[in-house]
Amino acid sequence: MAVEQMIVTVMEAVANNSLVWTDLDIELKAYAKEHHVPIIVDEGLALLEQIIRISKPKHILEIGTAIGYSAIRMARVCGSQITTIERNHEMVEIAKNTIQRSGYEKQIRLIECDALEAFDFVKDTSFDLIFIDAAKAQYQKFFELYTPLLSTHGIVVSDNMSFHGLVNTQDYEAQSRSVRGLIRKLAGYQEYLLKNLNYDTTIFELGDGVAISVKKD
């Protein structure tokens, strides 16, 4: 499927999509809200799930497990194998429990490690889709480190590209120095993706901003 056709198909599917929640999903969403755990927002999730339905990846790499919410959702879509990386031990312990409760523990491999140091754990695996949703300032490093493992016509999905609407606006000037630095990093990553001749990238203003980068021939 051509990139343009895939994007149109994805957007049509998202427009008609009605997300379905299990009791565990609802519990995890409530936990994330109460404890300020960043998880993918509903619009971004709908987009991600439609990409998975259309592209049918056999193996997905997720960078940033958090409490296991998105890994479980992705595993549920079309039976993909998920490898997910998380460095925060507390999050890992929660994710282990939620993944076991979900019934997808045979589909989801959880690696406790800093994603910038985890390459050796996955270097012999080919991935059809990479989902980046971890430390925002490191997105480009994650992309450069793991895309050599991407299969032909593989897809990279990067979440939080607009960072609460602050990227590509002047509103970030009122933020703290660290937040301004993070926003500049995300803006730089956007530019890097759009200028990368090896990928066709489209950035959607859905959820908190989602970039879809499709590997060229």
Describe this protein's structure.
Helix 1 (about 5-15) packs across helix 3 (about 40-55) and helix 3 packs parallel to helix 4. The chain has a single domain, classed as 3-Layer(aba) Sandwich (Rossmann fold). The chain has a seven-stranded mixed beta sheet, with helices on both faces. With about 220 residues, it is α/β, with parallel strands linked by helices. It contains eight helices and seven strands.
Low-confidence runs: none
- Percent of sequence in beta strands: 15-25%
Q: Cα-atom Rg, whole angstroms?
A: 16 Å
CATH topology: Rossmann fold
**Which strand order do you get reading across the main beta sheet?**
3-2-1-4-5-7-6
Q: Given the helix and strand composition, which structural class is it? A: alpha/beta
Annotation, overall tally of beta strands: 7
CATH class: Alpha Beta
Shape: globular
Listing every helix as H and every strand as E from the N terminus to the C terminus, the arrangement reads HHHEHEHEHEHEHEE
Architecture blueprint of SSEs:
Layout: H1 3-15, H2 23-35, H3 42-55, E1 59-63, H4 69-78, E2 81-86, H5 89-102, E3 108-112, H6 119-122, E4 127-132, H7 139-146, E5 150-159, H8 177-195, E6 199-204, E7 210-215
Describe what is shown at a glance.
By secondary structure, the protein is α/β, with parallel strands linked by helices. Helices cover 44% and strands 20% of the residues.
Characteristics:
7-stranded mixed β-sheet; Rossmann fold; 20% strand; 217 residues; 44% helix; alpha/beta
